[in-house]
Amino acid sequence: MGEQHGKVRHEHVRVAVIGSGFGGLGAAVRLRREGITDFVVLERAGSVGGTWRDNSYPGCACDVPSHLYSFSFAPNPEWPRTFSGQRHIRAYLEHVTDVFGIRPHLRFHHEVTRMAWDAAGLRWEIETTAGSLTADVVVSATGPLSDPKIPDIPGLSSFPGKVFHSARWDHDYDLTGKRVAMVGTGASAIQIVPSIAPKAGRLTLFQRTPPWVLPRVDRAITPAERALHRALPVTAKLRRAVLWGIREVQVQAFTKHPDELGLVERLAKRHLARAVKDPALRARLTPDYRIGCKRILLSSDYYPALTRPNVDVVAGGLAEVRGSTLVAADGTEAEADAIIFGTGFHVTDLPIAERVVGADGRTLAEHWKDGMRALRGASAAGFPNWMTIIGPNTGLGNSSMILMIESQLNYLADYLRHLDALGGRVALDARPAAVDAWNRRVQERMRRTVWNTGGCTSWYLDASGRNTTIWPGTTTEFRRATRHVDLAEYEILRAPAPHTADRVEVGA
Ligand SMILES: Cc1cc2nc3c(=O)[nH]c(=O)nc-3n(C[C@H](O)[C@H](O)[C@H](O)COP(=O)(O)OP(=O)(O)OC[C@H]3O[C@@H](n4cnc5c(N)ncnc54)[C@H](O)[C@@H]3O)c2cc1C
């Protein structure tokens, strides 16, 4: 960095939070609640919201009910639907930003391009597209699903039409009457297909693997219910508790007794049979792996959309593009004016990992070349005072990620309290043995889960087939595991006495 001792004023903050989605905003609120105001939130985009700013595709909505998919400390009695849409979730996050006084901390258009641990100064040197700064602690909340992935399809660059990813929807491109190819059948695609099928001239769905789909019990939350939640907030809490409790019980089948999921498979098959009468199409849409192995999708209009006369389902996935002709793995060809990729994100190969340089001069990506791993989903060995939100093995297959984020915020708050209690310039570095022990326990529990035994390949698994994304337990277990920082799991680093660094602090 360009610091010359005592001459160049650079900014130093106690905490730099990266990202302003649920994770980064939650961290910011928690920091303020802990009495910490010397922090910034670095965000590459021009507004808050993360997932809910970037995914604006038609039909975009949460698939965990809104009263659970929201912060426990910021209940919203006004959720309009059981599964609210992107616009409302984004507005909720803007509201949280205002109500909790986060605006002054936000730095938009500050994409973090590199951060490196300065072992002498016990601080992080952070470079962004809008300048550099240093921080005692980094909270990396860049999101597991924030960098879209477009597969390397031979010939794609020769396609003369429009190409975009579901998370970067081009609202200026009118799909009316167009020949549209939708690639992928994940959570985004099954919301997009029913929304655009009535508009498109022809819609070809390139399906590599059919998902399991259950009905979505979505309805408007009535004005009476909303008034009740407003007048008696305990009713909204109760509603949340019921939604949480049901999922907490369900997860046992995913983690310990995958065989019990056969009953759910029967429900899903009935759902399919009710909507799709054509046996050939039904066969193409019937999964051959255990339900739950990939994310179970909720939709009541996906299957009906696939029976429309202007919709084709091509099994085998998109294999090649020859000009405007798209060729599937089974040889089927389709002409298209536009290709929409609903092909997910860089999850197990996080781009941010390439940009974080640890104490030994190697990047996090290099440390994670054999798979992502972190102590309690938060701390990586050799990366002192660096903590990630929704880190390795913190994802959920059936419940709200906000529960996991809030658990990680408890851990963050305790971590900062320990740093304070230790006094002076100090840092905590996860001990490799503690990281190993935690990951051994996680992977041991993973062996029985449906994600590892269900007979599918999914984005939960990395290139070597290891599940580095999902938490193999209940959210209560994770909450317990992250309630307190166990100092024995960390090495305490102290700045060499007597002097640290002659820097000028201009923190907020
Ligand atoms: C379409 C969709 C629907 C979903 N629905 C649900 C649901 O119903 N229930 C559920 O539990 N989960 C759902 N998820 C998962 C969802 O991603 C999480 O619930 C949650 O929103 C993640 O929050 P986050 O803050 O960790 O990440 P994000 O919301 O992705 O935010 C990360 C932020 O970091 C910023 N950033 C990234 N890199 C940098 C950088 N280098 N420098 C600066 N800023 C950077 C990004 O711009 C972004 O604003 C869904 C995901 C998607 C994509």
UniProtKB/TrEMBL annotation:
One of its GO terms (molecular function) is NADP binding. The keyword Glycoprotein does not apply. Gene3D superfamilies: FAD/NAD(P)-binding domain. Belongs to the FAD-binding monooxygenase family. Catalyzes a Baeyer-Villiger oxidation reaction, i.e. the insertion of an oxygen atom into a carbon-carbon bond adjacent to a carbonyl, which converts ketones to esters or lactones using NADPH and/or NADH as an electron donor. Thus, can convert bicyclo[3.2.0]hept-2-en-6-one into the oxidative lactone products 2-oxabicyclo[3.3.0]oct-6-en-3-one and 3-oxabicyclo[3.3.0]oct-6-en-2-one. Is also able to catalyze the sulfoxidation of methyl phenyl sulfide (thioanisole). This is Baeyer-Villiger monooxygenase. It comes from the Bacteria. PANTHER family: FAD_NAD(P)-BINDING DOMAIN-CONTAINING PROTEIN-RELATED, L-ORNITHINE N(5)-MONOOXYGENASE-RELATED. It comes from Streptomyces echinoruber. It holds the Pfam family FMO-like. Keywords: FAD, Flavoprotein, Monooxygenase, NADP, Oxidoreductase. Its cofactor is FAD.
